[in-house]
Design a protein that fits this description.
Length: about 240
């Protein structure tokens, strides 16, 4: 790492810690949302430096890569994480039922994100959440950060939400891994089909994966998983 890169990431890290410290003055019982991806893993690593026993929540929709589950278990053990795994409706079963229709994304988000999170918050009395959301991932996330900032009260869920790396670039993210030497999810390593900023390591079967051609990568690197997905959903027949 060049000196200017080290200085840059140190400034970014210091700013993220200030955001987290401020957030924790408003939250009495928060959690960290963790997909196992590169961004949310950084947020887990940052937040546990302030609150080691904080709840780390992973939503299991029956569509994680095996490597993701192994990675989560490894860091749970090595970092002594207070991990809560929430079983949601099966994403594969939803695809089998509705197909890759225009309404699938709405149905999936409600069944495997919105409703489980609302139940989780109510059951555990959570009043805050830390998220690995970054502005350059999508227009919607950029719009959210511009409108709300890195710490805001979400009226829909009735909790505070904190996005400590909201304005980080993918280069900042990768510098963090080099600077701290924390383990990077193995599926971010060599991939012939997607640049690292477009790679996703959580759910492999959703409509977004189909639209962005990610099934090509799944078929190439995880043939048995791809075949099982085709068998269970009856819809994934784009390739022989």
């Amino acid at each position: 790492m060049f000196p200017f890169e080290r200085e840059l990431i140190e400034r970014k890290i210091a700013d993220a810690h200030k955001v987290i410290e401020n957030a924790l003055t408003k939250m009495k019982n928060p959690y960290v949302a963790w997909s196992g991806g590169k961004d949310s893993t950084i947020v887990v690593h940052l937040v546990i430096q302030h609150k080691p026993d904080i709840a780390i929540v992973h939503l299991d929709a029956d569509a994680d890569f095996p490597e993701t589950l192994q990675y989560i278990e490894r860091l749970k053990r090595e970092w002594k994480l207070n991990l809560i795994t929430v079983k949601t409706k099966s994403l594969l079963e939803l695809v089998a039922r509705y197909g890759y229709s225009d309404e699938l994304t709405r149905i999936v988000m409600k069944a495997v994100v919105y409703e489980p999170i609302k139940r989780l918050i109510k059951q555990n009395g959570f009043d805050g959440c830390f998220l690995g959301v970054r502005s350059d991932e999508s227009y919607g996330r950029s719009k959210l950060l511009r409108a709300q900032g890195k710490l805001f009260f979400n009226k829909t869920y009735g909790i505070w939400q904190c996005l400590p790396i909201g304005w980080w670039s993918v280069d900042d993210v990768m510098r963090y891994y080099e600077y701290t030497n924390i383990p990077l999810h193995p599926l971010y390593h060599e991939n012939l089909f997607e640049p690292i900023e477009q790679r996703r390591v959580s759910y492999f079967a959703g409509g977004t994966s189909k639209e962005r051609g990610r099934f090509v990568s799944v078929k190439f690197y995880h043939r048995s998983l791809y075949n099982e997905m085709r068998k269970r959903t009856r819809w994934v027949s784009f390739f022989s």
